[in-house]
Amino acid sequence: MYLLKFPAHPGTYFYSDADIHRADNFITVLDCLMTLFDRYVPGIPGQPLNIKIERSADSPACFRNLKEIHLNTELQYVSQAAYQFSHELCHMRIPFFVGEDLRWFEESVCETASHFFLRKLANELSDEKYADHPALMRYAPKFSEYSARVLDGAKEVDLTSKHQMRRFTLNCYLRDENLYVAKLLLPIFEKNPGLWEAVLYLGHVPSGFCVTDSLEIWKTTARREESAIEEIRSLFLSSL
Q: What angle do helix axes 103-125 and 141-151 make, rounded to 10 degrees?
């Protein structure tokens, strides 16, 4: 087992069965994603984080208390790794556990993060500063293509339906339906990237409220990007 340090993020390590030469591109991609997250969804500088590949039904997963992220992928599948890592890192960056009534929304936002940051990654890795990683520079457009393929699988649902909101509350892991919410959220986040800082306040919303009231509380608590949060809230207004 190798313990590989991330170049730009002291305290972040990848546990790998492969040596640094095989894991180089993999680590570069995840390190670049962390830099992008630092820009949009700031965390605590130098906070420890361990990343492992765990091929199991319980992965990918984020363990806030252990400061660990488990990915269910392989070193050669860098798009899949980036997709999973962005989702789990979004969970990790939210400083407090989100209330049960909004867990499905957190899942949908973290799904949005996968697509937002895959697209940012495609632009970032095409830059000449990654000239020492020519394979990644050539591969860069594939990250956006991966996002587009995944979004094509979204299952449309009626977000104004009380029944649908109840389904989300009972099971926050309705992946195809979370994906549909993410598909609607993505253009709002792309127009208003400051929303990512507002996401850090989702854990401040208490349980016991309907979705529109919860999002109103989020807007009031975050005190930023209010018009963008209201645009998100409008997606659910008839679900009262």
A: 150
CB 98 within 8 A of CB 202: yes
All structural domains of the chain = 1-240 (1.10.390)
pLDDT (tens digit, 9 = 90+) per residue, 43-60? 888 889 999 999 999 999
20 vs 136: CA distance, rounded Å: 16
pLDDT in tens, 95-111: 999 999 999 999 999 99
DSSP for residue 96: S
C-alpha dist (Å) from residue 202 to 90, 140, 155, 211: 12, 32, 25, 12
CA distance 174 to 14: 29
At what angle are helices 226-234 and 211-222 packed, to 10 degrees? 170
